[in-house]
Amino acid sequence: MIQPNSELVIDYELVRNNIQVIRKNLPKECKLMGVIKSNAYGHDLEKTIQALDGVIDGYGVVRLEEAFKIRNASVKPILAMQGVYSSDAYDSLKQHNVWSVIHSISQLPLAKQYQDDLTFWIKVNTGMNRLGIRLDELEKFESFLKDSNTLMTHLACADNPEDELNKTQFSNFDQAWNQVTNTMQRSVLNSAGIFNFPDHAYDWVRSGIAMYGGIDYPDLKTAMTFRSQIISIQSLDENERIGYGGRVTTKAPSKIAIVYCGYADGFPQIAIDGTSVIVNSHLSQIIGRVSMDLISIDVTEIPDCKIGDWCELWSPDLSILENTKKNHLISYELMTKMSQRVKRQYLNI
Ligand SMILES: *Cc1c(COP(=O)(O)O)cnc(C)c1O
Q1: Of the N and C termini of the chain, which has fewer Cβ atoms inside 10 Å?
Q2: Best substitution site from 190, 207, 222 to test ligand 1's pocket, by max atoms within 8 Å of Cβ?
Q3: pLDDT digits (tens, 9 = 90+) for 63-97
Q4: Which domain holds residue 148?
Q5: Separation in Å, CA 193 to CA 82, 96, 172, 208
């Protein structure tokens, strides 16, 4: 074995396949904004643009640096989803032809100076109470409520269709819509919304996590493989304890493999015993506490497991959701927290 390293392998063909699955759920004329904030949820901003520019209709980001990087590589629409706050920033939006969101009455005076030069998405607060203009303030934005702009909102519970807040938000959004010209474009749905409420797709949907395969829907696949190699194997008797705190005591003679990867690579420290991993195409489990640079897994039942074998922490064959559900985590956080020291490989850009 050469010097091992933890690896993140990103397969853009899988991202493009996920986009096809998303499109199948949408009316044909609905446009897909690929959300690539936070370095494309850890999938590398620049390579993601290269890989997806032919299959999406626009880009959603938060940071302006990201917006300008995209503009260097693409002519498609770009939306700065959390707005901008200075004339310098508005001037650069103009220069780079980037759209932005107005979500607060406090943005109004400055935005007014640019209303004829820029494209705006007007975000209404329909019940999430994070960002958004109150319905009773909407009339103050009258000059922005025109055809070239878009009326938007964001759902708080799109991943839980049973939650009544969804109904409230749709009804409030309709109310806002009735107040405006009715010829503005509309955008409501994020990834979960696309699968749970396709009737509300309207003109634009904004999808991030589904493109990367981080929500549970048939045919979506985790597009990143996080893996590292086994550097040691312990043969233990019954009644021996494993790792920091000796969290686990063996109930029978066991074979434990030690993987060259830990929380400093971005693997969650809180992962419980029983969290799934894959070794040589066999399902295996974490056993004992995750340390900074090492993870111990139970390979008692895995034939011929040896030093140098790869252990997948998540991959197209082991959804990242296996890991997050057991540990009360979310895929978004794991994807965006992969550490710099993990070696990157990019396939099918
Ligand atoms: C991040 C974000 C999205 C994308 O959400 P996903 O759940 O990743 O699809 C959509 N809209 C807004 C305003 C966002 O901030």
Answers
A1: N
A2: 190
A3: 999 999 999 999 999 999 999 999 999 999 999 99
A4: 12-212
A5: 19, 30, 16, 11
